[in-house]
Amino acid sequence: SPEPVDDAPTGGLSKRRGRPGRPLVVMKDVNKHFGDLHVLREINLTIHEGEVVVVIGPSGSGKSTLCRTINRLETVESGTITIDGQPLPEEGKGLAKLRAEVGMVFQSFNLFAHKTILENVTLGPIKVRNTKKSQAESRAKELLERVGVAHQAAKYPAQLSGGQQQRVAIARSLAMEPKVMLFDEPTSALDPEMINEVLDVMIDLADGGMTMVVVTHEMGFARRAADRVVFMADGEIVEQAEPEEFFTNPQSNRAKDFLGKIL
Ligand code: ADP
Ligand code: MG
């Protein structure tokens, strides 16, 4: 098959790696409608290994739908999506494996309410990855340590703050050893004082070389962590650039208008 067209204006360069990684997520000519609404229009997007891509744009522009197509929570009508060279699986076992490889953290923390924090993190590896319980638990403890909630392992989600729950949700995704992590407005449901504790974990992940797609309005995070900002409006990728370039010198009127409202 032909080499994927590299659409990234930054050439897929990662700040941390200092060199472009191989294409990990490749979306080619992707289209999707919800009824009459053309929610994704000819999306061409390549995410390289180790790259951190921040997706911004007005509400309703298709950012969540874009993320959801990457782990096949939404199907597409035309175009192709590949992860590490493999087309997205249609169903069954392949889909469970895909969901493990493509971690996703949502605005709402959606932990399993009736499982402890430790169980929330061990469940996936035991069920999907066939990891031994003892091994899953020791790995889960490491991850909970990494996101700063190790001392909460025996508690239930409702006993934790929103910021702590979101950090557990991140640990739960990481336990599956994903190739790429998707974050869809992970801090927008949090009280302001808890936003940074979650962003700090994400910055730590980025610095560790994780490939990340992050939908967020946190421009400080974008400036600090992103290799590339992708601006969406009305289902289209309107422009993309390195954060400093995008924020100081947006090209399109739609991006100028959007930045004028949020900055
Ligand atoms: P964003 O995340 O940028 O706010 P979304 O991807 O959530 O945008 O939504 C894009 C558009 O698609 C919005 O107009 C939204 O109302 C619509 N939409 C999203 N999900 C569905 C759905 N399941 N059925 C119908 N319309 C939807
Ligand atoms: Mg959204």
Automatic annotation (TrEMBL):
<dbReference type="InterPro" id="IPR030679">
    <property type="entry name" value="ABC_ATPase_HisP-typ"/>
</dbReference>
<keyword id="KW-0472">Membrane</keyword>
<feature type="region of interest" description="Disordered">
    <location>
        <begin position="1"/>
        <end position="21"/>
    </location>
</feature>
<dbReference type="InterPro" id="IPR017871">
    <property type="entry name" value="ABC_transporter-like_CS"/>
</dbReference>
<dbReference type="GO" id="GO:0005524">
    <property type="term" value="F:ATP binding"/>
</dbReference>
<dbReference type="InterPro" id="IPR050086">
    <property type="entry name" value="MetN_ABC_transporter-like"/>
</dbReference>
<dbReference type="GO" id="GO:0015426">
    <property type="term" value="F:ATPase-coupled polar amino acid-transporter activity"/>
</dbReference>
<keyword id="KW-0547">Nucleotide-binding</keyword>
<keyword id="KW-0813">Transport</keyword>
<keyword id="KW-0029">Amino-acid transport</keyword>
<dbReference type="GO" id="GO:0005886">
    <property type="term" value="C:plasma membrane"/>
</dbReference>
<dbReference type="Pfam" id="PF00005">
    <property type="entry name" value="ABC_tran"/>
</dbReference>
<keyword id="KW-1003">Cell membrane</keyword>
<dbReference type="InterPro" id="IPR003439">
    <property type="entry name" value="ABC_transporter-like_ATP-bd"/>
</dbReference>
<keyword id="KW-0067">ATP-binding</keyword>
<dbReference type="GO" id="GO:0016887">
    <property type="term" value="F:ATP hydrolysis activity"/>
</dbReference>
<protein>
    <recommendedName>
        <fullName>ABC-type polar-amino-acid transporter</fullName>
        <ecNumber>7.4.2.1</ecNumber>
    </recommendedName>
</protein>
<dbReference type="InterPro" id="IPR027417">
    <property type="entry name" value="P-loop_NTPase"/>
</dbReference>
<dbReference type="InterPro" id="IPR003593">
    <property type="entry name" value="AAA+_ATPase"/>
</dbReference>
<comment type="similarity">
    <text>Belongs to the ABC transporter superfamily.</text>
</comment>
<feature type="domain" description="ABC transporter">
    <location>
        <begin position="25"/>
        <end position="259"/>
    </location>
</feature>
